């Protein structure tokens, strides 16, 4: 995924067209969301705070919630599996498929399956696994990666999509979005009917009833679960809410935060295998609780990020995401949430690989303000920056701060440096042999040095007139 | 260093791993991480009714609210069963499915040019241009149709045809989302439908009918014709 380029390198190389479309669609979604929340509620912030507290309560008590939800699901006739790692999760899926002699799978969009690279794994084992969310389907046929957790192809335009459809034999070139969508409809409905097994994620799981809640706008998860006889749900261990009566709060915030809807079009509540009177649907329901780095997060000082309900609001509002798009983060989870979650999920040993991501933020705080579960993302970014510093992770592009800290802690030296630095205005700064400064100046220009102006102003202000 | 701590330290164990189950591994790590917490966050005391949009409901007739909210999400609310049949005829959609429980309610309205089946054959799902099924209820606040396994024995019939019409009994209309959650009961699979199937994946342009119905309709009736 994007090699080892830093976020600003990736942003600099992003085509103007992609950048404009990412910027435009994130901005529109964000503005609609704000209007919807503030038009309808006197104090929407209160809702976010409650939702955050509920999820934090669950995370702090996962040791009792996990066994409880397992027992409840088993009572409902669901088979519960556990997978500590990505590979364990993939193999558990494969074991279920093999036992059923199933070789055709339809999938809904699930971030967990992206994490564990399930699609590639199944293909490698000779299983046809079809993504049914339109965006994910296009990602799949292009062998690409999603660049947004709710809008996987926010980085593609209709002409690219039309070319992909033509290449895949889905009809002659036509870039009308309606035609593209209807061709996908025709193609995918036959895939549902041929498939043996449906693989989904879960948006929420109620500990009280063991109910799995799935939301989609397209209706693809309903089609998957109506047309096949076996349902496998991949669920991160943090997805639990305590009671059914907590669902209205979360459904309300998820729809509004993700796509500015009061409710997502299709909201499904799955309690177990079908009743014998029901013609359509699963005889077998398997739940796989996936860890894959989540317990590493739980051991860290950033457990708040486990509240995340994957709405994408922080991506949409983030000035860095808007410039850089999702691939720049080299991770399944991009944007502010990804800058926290992705390095943590690497585990202690591989943290350094993504330790640069928390720096891809101006700490403006917009992500915290929009987060439906009130995650203090800027604080977490700072904790992770500190973690990288403490562990001495070397980072390209970071200016050395040693000299600065000596200067800044000695008032006299600082004052002298402020006025002396006026010489910068006459120097060709882009030629100075400081790599970090050179990289920075490639796409930006330093403003004129006005060091000392504030001190001067303050001193004059204090003088009695 | 014990095998156990090695497993923790070096991440992925080889598979199959018979030394310790993934379940124990996960739960042990969870407990270990939580042990260190000085305080655990308490469940906040909040009322799940806080999400209700009282200004929308404001003591009005639930059917009126339902109609208004359905319009916002592009679900067509018809005044009566006959109006649905007239609409179908105007669109030229003559082949479809009607749930057996509703046949007596609709039978008289279908002209001889209609071909309506009372059994939904999923292997011929493209043969049905429309379907009419009985809903488990509706949520007025959000303009949502509730479809349950208990009420409808065919999930595909309400999903696969281009146009779906849900028949809602007036007494089954719930006011708000929390009431909808309370009504889930023992149903194995309930789905709330708030508008037609839609996507905005291509350049953010809204297109309806991506997998499920492109036309979502509903009608409220006092009672079924038995």
Structure description:
The complex is a heterodimer of chains A (465) and B (226). Chain A is of the alpha/beta class. Chain A has helices spanning 7-13, 16-40, 44-60, 62-75, 86-99, 111-115, 118-124, 134-141, 158-167, 177-194, 220-227, 247-259, 294-299, 313-317, 319-324, 335-345, 347-350, 366-370, 377-390, 402-408, 411-420, 435-443, 453-462; strands at 79-83, 104-107, 128-131, 197-200, 204-206, 212-216, 230-236, 240-241, 266-270, 284-290. In chain A, 50% of the residues lie in helices and 10% in strands. In chain A, the strands form two sheets. A six-stranded parallel β-sheet of chain A has the order 1-10-7-4-2-3, sandwiched between helices. In chain A, β5 (204-206) and β6 form a beta hairpin. The longest helix of chain A has 25 residues, at 16-40. The mean pLDDT of chain A is 92. Chain B is α/β, with parallel strands linked by helices. Chain B has two domains: 3-35, no CATH class; 60-221, Rossmann fold, CATH 3.40.50. Chain B contains seven helices and twelve strands. In chain B, strands 1-12-7-4-2-3 form a six-stranded parallel β-sheet. Chain B has a four-stranded mixed β-sheet with strand order 8-5-6-9. A two-stranded antiparallel ribbon of chain B has the order 10-11. In chain B, β2, α6 (103-106) and β3 form a beta-alpha-beta unit. The longest helix of chain B has 14 residues, at 22-35. At the A-B interface, α2, α3, α4, β1 and α5 of A face α2, α7, β9 and β10 of B. β9 of chain A pairs antiparallel with β9 (189-193) of chain B.
């Amino acid at each position: 995924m994007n090699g080892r380029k830093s976020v600003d390198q990736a942003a600099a190389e992003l085509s103007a067209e992609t950048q404009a479309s990412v910027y435009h669609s994130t901005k529109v979604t964000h503005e609609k969301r704000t209007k919807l929340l503030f038009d309808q509620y006197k104090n929407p912030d209160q809702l976010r705070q409650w939702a955050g507290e509920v999820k934090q309560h669950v995370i702090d008590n996962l040791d009792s919630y996990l066994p409880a939800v397992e027992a409840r699901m088993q009572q409902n006739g669901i088979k519960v599996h556990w997978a500590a790692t990505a590979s364990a999760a993939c193999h558990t899926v494969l074991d279920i498929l093999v036992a059923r002699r199933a070789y055709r799978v339809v999938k809904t969009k699930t971030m967990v399956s992206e994490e564990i690279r399930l699609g590639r794994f199944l293909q490698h084992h000779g299983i046809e696994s079809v993504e049914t969310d339109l965006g994910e389907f296009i990602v799949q046929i292009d062998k690409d990666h999603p660049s947004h957790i709710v809008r996987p192809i926010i980085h593609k335009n209709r002409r690219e999509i039309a070319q992909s459809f033509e290449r895949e034999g889905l009809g002659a070139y036509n870039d009308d979005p309606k035609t593209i969508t209807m061709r996908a409809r025709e193609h995918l409905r036959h895939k549902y009917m041929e498939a043996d097994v449906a693989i989904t994620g879960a948006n929420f799981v109620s500990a009280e009833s063991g109910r799995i809640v799935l939301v989609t706008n397209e209706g693809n998860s309903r089609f998957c679960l109506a047309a096949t006889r076996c349902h496998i749900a991949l669920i991160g261990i943090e997805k639990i809410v305590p009671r059914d009566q907590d669902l209205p709060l979360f459904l309300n915030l998820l729809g509004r935060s993700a796509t500015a809807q009061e409710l997502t079009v299709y909201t499904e509540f799955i309690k177990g295998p079908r009743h014998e009177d029901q013609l359509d649907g699963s005889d077998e329901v398997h739940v796989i609780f996936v860890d894959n780095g989540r317990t590493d997060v739980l051991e860290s000082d950033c457990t708040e990020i486990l509240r995340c309900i994957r709405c994408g609001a922080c991506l949409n509002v983030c000035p860095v995401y808007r410039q850089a798009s999702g691939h720049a983060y080299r991770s399944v989870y991009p944007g502010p949430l990804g800058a926290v979650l992705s390095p943590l999920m690497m585990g202690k040993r591989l943290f350094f690989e993504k330790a640069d991501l928390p720096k891809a933020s101006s700490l403006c705080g917009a992500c915290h303000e929009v987060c439906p579960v009130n995650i203090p993302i800027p604080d977490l970014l700072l904790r992770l920056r500190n973690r990288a510093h403490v562990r001495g992770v070397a980072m390209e592009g970071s200016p050395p701060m040693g000299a600065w800290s000596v200067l800044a802690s000695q008032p006299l030296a600082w004052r002298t440096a402020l006025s002396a630095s006026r010489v910068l205005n006459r120097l060709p700064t882009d030629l100075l042999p400081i790599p970090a400064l050179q990289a920075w100046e490639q796409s930006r220009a330093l403003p004129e040095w006005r060091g000392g102006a504030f001190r001067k102003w303050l001193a004059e202000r204090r003088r009695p007139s | 260093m014990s095998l156990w701590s090695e497993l923790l330290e070096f991440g992925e164990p080889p598979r199959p791993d018979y030394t310790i189950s993934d379940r124990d591994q996960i739960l042990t790590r969870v407990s270990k991480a939580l042990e260190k917490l000085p305080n655990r966050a308490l469940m906040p005391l909040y009322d799940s009714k806080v999400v209700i949009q009282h200004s929308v409901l404001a003591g009005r007739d639930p059917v009126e609210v339902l109609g208004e909210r359905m319009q916002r999400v592009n679900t067509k609310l018809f005044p009566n069963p006959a109006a649905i049949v007239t609409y179908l005829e105007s669109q030229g959609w003559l082949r479809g499915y009607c749930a057996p429980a509703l046949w007596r309610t609709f039978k008289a309205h279908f002209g001889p040019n209609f071909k309506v089946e009372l059994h939904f054959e999923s292997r011929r799902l493209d043969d049905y241009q429309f379907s009419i099924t009985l809903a488990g209820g509706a949520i007025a606040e959000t303009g949502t149709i509730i479809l349950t396994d208990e009420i409808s024995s065919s999930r595909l019939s309400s999903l696969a045809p281009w146009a779906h019409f849900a028949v809602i009994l007036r007494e089954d209309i719930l006011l708000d989302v929390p009431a909808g959650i309370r009504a889930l009961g023992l149903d194995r699979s309930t789905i709330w439908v708030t508008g037609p199937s839609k996507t905005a994946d291509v350049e953010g342009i809204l297109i309806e009918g991506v997998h499920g119905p492109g036309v979502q309709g509903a009608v409220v009736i006092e009672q079924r014709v038995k």
